[in-house]
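Q: Start with the shorter request: fold the first protein.
A: Done. Sequence, then structure:
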Amino acid sequence: EFNSNKPTKNFSIALNDCQAVTKVTIAPSSSSLCTNGDGQEDAFANTNGDAKGIAVELWSGEPDAGTKFICSQSSGQSFSVTDDTTILPMSIRMIPTETTLQAGSFDTTLTLIVTYP
């Protein structure tokens, strides 16, 4: 059931009072752990929970329609800033990483770094 119904949560990043900014880059911090622990996969690991075989993907926009953040790419994604307040729609989606899943809690820390010129 989890494979066909992957839980998704939408959220937004609001950039306020950015009159002189035309572009921002958003990237996961190096402290965010990838699913296999060596930074070579695109999903973020369950670092503080006891569930097994699951991870979380981070997307700009909707999953599969937007662009997926890659855990191992510190370059992140660039976004245009068009006015004083820019809203960037984002989402996370839980995904299976193994064929055998173990129920439990999922808890991870995913820090996003926002940079601008």
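Q: Next, the second protein, separately.
A: Sequence, then structure:
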Amino acid sequence: MQHLDLFEWIAEPYAWFYGVQRKHYKRVIEAMALKPHSKILDLGAGTGAMASLLSVDHDVLAVDGSKAMVRVMRRLNPDIYVDQLDITQKLPFEDKQFDVVLTSFVLHGLKAKDRLHVLSEMKRVADLVIVYDYYGKRHLFTDIVEFVEQGDYFNFMKQFNGEFKSFFPEHAIFPINSGSALYIGGFNEDTLIAQQDTK
């Protein structure tokens, strides 16, 4: 997978932004408003910045498909459960094994077939599904970066709202800024505290 191969090369540079990521993710996690002590699966966890914050109040398993990224994640987060896992394959977990499964800026990098498979597996393994990714207006700088990464960003921007709705007719989209949002599906009152406006 060309997109995944890229992260074998840029894992160490990604680590330079670990602190910045943590600062940003604090606000994102506040918007999730999860019930404390949830069992969470973080797919495509990267450097583990979000997982490290979630692990303060939750039981978190962080996985990534890149060997280099997993190595960085383990170094930066020695107290977090970390594993290498190809998320485009069937996940080795039981149905509803987790309270929450989330992914952050991962799905836009996958082709539609893989993206739909991941959504299906997310829905299977957890009650609550959260996708944090691009939303709303496109920006020139982002367009350039994503063109270089050779993911599926441009199709994602056109198609993902419909793709997510096909799995979760009752869902919410919670904008974080002009270019990103939380897509939330599979509402569970025992897991999600905050009230979100359904779309």
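Q: Describe the second briefly.
A: The chain has one domain: 2-185. The helical segments are 2-15, 18-32, 49-54, 67-76, 112-125, 140-149, 153-167.
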